[in-house]
Amino acid sequence: MKAEEVRQITVLGAGQMGHQIAMLCALGGFGTIIQDVQEQALAAAQDKLHAIMDKWVSKGRLSADEKEAAFQKLRFTTSFEDAVRNTDFVIEAVVEKLDVKREVFSKLDQLAPEHTIFATNSSTIVNSLVASETSRADKVVNMHFFFPPLVMDCVEVVMSDKTSEETARLTMEISKRINRTAVLLKKEISGFIANRILGALQKEAVYLYEQGIADFRDIDIICRKALNHPIGPFELMDLSGIDVGYFVMEQRYKETGDPEDKPFACIEEKVKQGHLGRKTGKGWYNYETEGVKQ
User: What range(s) does the 3-hydroxyacyl-CoA dehydrogenase C-terminal domain occupy (predicted)?
Assistant: First the structure.
């Protein structure tokens, strides 16, 4: 199958990643379905996408007709079966928990057509850990977008030792069609490339904070001013979602058993408090009262 033969793409999960991935697919000309179990999540996704696309139109990045054409290609549903029964390509963007993803892939294997490719947007979980729940490991691949997908021009495409060359080629072609630069990794490793490098930076930043070497604000300032990073590591955790990073660390710790991979106590505490970053109004910074200048 070639990219031009793909008639429908299904995105599972309408959260902060899923709804933007779906819009990329619609803008790329693909008939696209967004599926989520919660009607409220789907309604919020529609509102957010309309707001983003309206800004694009006002800035001249998109015409009103192009916006309308993209939304004509988007469909929203709570029905898993309806979303996958006739689809050609699935992008899973549910919560970063292995047991949840395994359940999703098992269900996918039962309901999707035999030719359908399954891609996981996981930021750290290698696809072989979910492909084992299917009868088509050759058609399972990582397709890792970066937050926010409508802004970040990069996708990590990762093959397992069972992912076929055809599956990888099609995933790369689709990435190109949706105007994203894709990098192909032919060997699995937890966290892939970007998040392993980012994780090393964040791990050191949190270590310095927990040891009382510097306040998190000062660490952010140094990374921005001295290293020329656009935002500091604590600001980035707030932007991406502190819970997302926590689940990544938790999953890696489960895989390796290495105490060095265990989530930091301060991160775990924020997750328990529900202080997850910008999406909750408070994380490392309090966005309801102070905001963050970048």
Answer: 191-287
Q: Helix 233-240 vs helix 194-210: angle between axes, to the nearest 10 degrees? A: 120
Beta bridge partners of 90: 10, 118
Note if the bond before 148 is cis, omega within 30 degrees: yes
When pLDDT is averaged across residues 186-196 and rounded to a whole number, the result is: 92
What DSSP line would sit under 185-200, residue for residue?
ESS--TTTTHHHHHHH
H/E stretch holding 134 reads none
Q: Residue 161 — very low, low, confident or very high, per pLDDT cuts 50/70/90?
A: very high
Q: How many CA atoms lie within 13 A of 256 on its CB side?
A: 17
Buried b (16+ CB within 10 A) or exposed e, 233-244: bbbbbbbbbbbb
Q: Which two tokens stand for residue 67?
A: 């916006």
Q: Which helix (H) or strand (E) holds 142?
A: strand 140-145
Please list the alpha-helical segments (H only) found in the chain. Answer: 18-27, 39-58, 64-72, 80-84, 98-111, 128-131, 165-177, 194-210, 216-225, 233-240, 242-256, 265-273
Q: Please, how many CA atoms are within 13 Å of residue 111, restricted to the half-sphere of its CB? A: 16
